[in-house]
Amino acid sequence: MNFNRRKFLIFSTFSTISAAIFGCVQVIKASKSNTSQVIQKPITNSQKEKLLFRFVSVADTGTGDKGQYEVAKAMTKYHSKNPYNLVVLAGDNIYNNGEIEKINQVFERPYAELLKKGVKFQACLGNHDIRTDNGDPQVKYAGFNMKGRYYTYTREQMQFFVLDTNGNADMKTQLAWLETELSKSKAAWKIVYGHHPIYSSGHYGDNQVFIKSFTPIFKKYNVQLYINGHDHNYERTKVINGTTYLVCGAGAGTRPSGNNQRTAYSAEKLSFAAYDVYADKIEIRAIGTDNKIFDRGTISLKSI
């Protein structure tokens, strides 16, 4: 091989190696550049959101039968992945006649795991609960955490107002109490619950007396959510004059669910509802005994 040919080969080899090294350096720089861009991306609104509180609701539970245990099991499983420390228990806590002697069978055993974890149940009285001593033994039972036949309590930025919606309740006094408490409330979120529906497309339908008496107060004081049982199904309404109405009465058994122009979603499913509370919204999930979410909804802080 002559000198010029050898020189050419050496130069070509060196150029190839240099190009490869230069290419690797460029790739590394590009990689570092891309990494830097990912890190420097602005934080989105969703990343800024902070969960303030989580709770669940269920009603018409107190049978001690298979259906109740299935829903309780789903509530316990949900808690293991999405911890919560409050259950809104919206009445008919003890079937058929509110006998407190059944409390172990229809409450303490089904929810034993949740109670062990410190989950607090806040109950109201249903129509079956008042059949024995007008429900007084349940009001006094420590596990239901009732401060009276109607009462209020707060969690984070929420205030709950618990009603006695039974036919023998002193509704005039109670309505005056509710308006007074709502007018004093500084809470961003105002949530009312009782056993009986106000709006429902289920078995019992709308309660015209309650529509007339309660809904003007809800509108005046920006109550964003009303929760109830009595109808043994799940139903979430569209926003009605600022308030979403949610039936969660399928805690042990079911009846056919209806549907009308106000209904956002309804289902005949053994189930409970879960609520994730943020500063500006509440995200609702309906969860069945198969542990699957079958409805999702959102309530804005200032509903319209």
What does this structure look like?
The chain has 304 residues and is of the alpha/beta class. The protein has 2 domains: 1-41; 51-300, Metallo-dependent phosphatases (Purple Acid Phosphatase, chain A, domain 2), CATH 3.60.21. It is 33% helix and 23% strand. It has 8 helices and 13 strands. The chain has helices at 3-39, 45-48, 66-81, 103-108, 112-116, 136-140, 171-184, 208-220, and strands at 53-58, 86-89, 120-123, 151-155, 158-162, 189-193, 225-228, 234-237, 244-248, 263-267, 271-277, 281-288, 293-300. The strands form 2 sheets. The protein has a 7-stranded mixed sheet, covered by helices on one side. The protein has a 6-stranded mixed sheet with strand order 3-2-1-11-12-13, covered by helices on one side. α7 links the parallel β5 and β6. The longest helix is centred in the first third of the chain and has 37 residues, at 3-39. The radius of gyration is 29 Å and the shape is globular. 37% of the residues are buried. Mean pLDDT is 88; it is low at 1-44.
